[in-house]
Prior knowledge:
Elements: H1 8-32, E1 36-39, H2 45-54, E2 59-62, H3 66-73, E3 79-81, H4 84-92, E4 97-101, H5 104-113, E5 119-121, H6 127-139, H7 141-172
Helix pairs in contact: 1-6, 4-5
Amino acid sequence: MNFAVHGPGSWSSFKRNLPVYARSLASIQRRTGARYRYFLHSEPERVAYRLLRAAGIEAELVDLPPRELATAYGDLDLHIAQMMHSAILCASAGTPLVSFAYDFKTKLLFDLLGLPEHCQLGMDWKDSDIIENVDLALQSLDSMRRRLATARDTFEHQFAENAVWLRSLLAAS
């Protein structure tokens, strides 16, 4: 999991929603036996990790250099993301994910990945929002992996085409 706390708006939303996150994550953990890992992307997020722990959420802290994070995301069954960068690294590893986004850019990312139903956009959440989205994802892990692989193949193909075009453009100048 990863929650965004890198600005006043995201921090305010995190504090306001912390009881919802804690109840929802605890409920999911009781029902599924989930083992949580909190992926740290910046120092301010360490506070979010500590607050989740203080609220009773057991989670291992994953504090790795950026180049190693994508590999670590690949070890997950499902990622609960709020921050877009976390979602990008997770998707690049082919790992199914859900998001409770505070920013429309994350919603657009999920649209591009072919996973629009797994990203909810807003600033205030109910327990049912989180539990139902995670439950939906847990029921469709294989489908999500296939859609992520298709999206990755599409992006790689587009990148290769653009690289050929750019090389030809540079050679002609």
